Amino acid sequence: MTTIRPFTCDDLFKINNVNLDPLTQTYDLPFYMQFLAHWPEYFQAAESPSGEIMGYIIGKAEGANENWHGHVTLLSVANDYRRLGLAATLMHNLEEISEKKRCFFVDLFTRVCNQVAVNMYETLGYSVYRRVLEYYSGRQVLVYSSGEVDEDAFEMRKALSRDKENKSVIPFPRPVRRDELN
């Protein structure tokens, strides 16, 4: 049986199996600690009966007025535990927290090339709000050379109950650069 619980500092030493996925963005310890200190309710772990971390989610609440929203900073499930519904459960919990904080929507960024993630988020009710050019930097490309390339992201959104007219998910008319994000 899987336990969804608050992430702890000790869990930082148990997430290597989850972070091995090449599409998972990994960060340094101060990054994780900042989220744990500022938005602990948004930082959750899925734990197996043996104590192994199966996956985790990191998020926060940000913005102002009608842009007040929950944000998924990172969601990852270890390869051995995929297709069990863990990602959907973690996302649902983050959405519930955002509802309680009276957010208008939840957003996230995913690599354009990560069609599995795009499909999963669409199944969960998210839609592409806009494309962000060169959002992810320095991904290794092995097709023609071993150089690095910046990769685009989709910003995906799901309206919450406070956004009664679904204004927050009306697609943006053009791609944007990172410095244009608000």
Automatic annotation (TrEMBL):
Keyword Metal-binding: no
MF annotations from Gene Ontology: protein N-terminal-methionine acetyltransferase activity
Keyword Acyltransferase: yes
CDD domains the record matches: NAT_SF (cd04301)
Domain of life according to the entry: Eukaryota
Broad class of enzyme this protein falls into: transferase
N-acetyltransferase domain mapped to chain residues: 2-161
Pfam families found in the cross-reference section: Acetyltransf_1
Reactions performed catalytically: N-terminal L-methionyl-L-glutaminyl-[protein] + acetyl-CoA = N-terminal N(alpha)-acetyl-L-methionyl-L-glutaminyl-[protein] + CoA + H(+); N-terminal L-methionyl-L-glutamyl-[protein] + acetyl-CoA = N-terminal N(alpha)-acetyl-L-methionyl-L-glutamyl-[protein] + CoA + H(+); N-terminal L-methionyl-L-asparaginyl-[protein] + acetyl-CoA = N-terminal N(alpha)-acetyl-L-methionyl-L-asparaginyl-[protein] + CoA + H(+); N-terminal L-methionyl-L-aspartyl-[protein] + acetyl-CoA = N-terminal N(alpha)-acetyl-L-methionyl-L-aspartyl-[protein] + CoA + H(+)
EC number(s) reported in the record: 2.3.1.254
Keywords noted in UniProt: Acyltransferase, Transferase
Coiled coil: none
Assembly notes: Component of the N-terminal acetyltransferase B (NatB) complex which is composed of NAA20 and NAA25.
Protein family according to the UniProt entry: Belongs to the acetyltransferase family. ARD1 subfamily.
Function: Catalytic subunit of the NatB complex which catalyzes acetylation of the N-terminal methionine residues of peptides beginning with Met-Asp, Met-Glu, Met-Asn and Met-Gln. Proteins with cell cycle functions are overrepresented in the pool of NatB substrates. Required for maintaining the structure and function of actomyosin fibers and for proper cellular migration.
Protein name: N-alpha-acetyltransferase 20
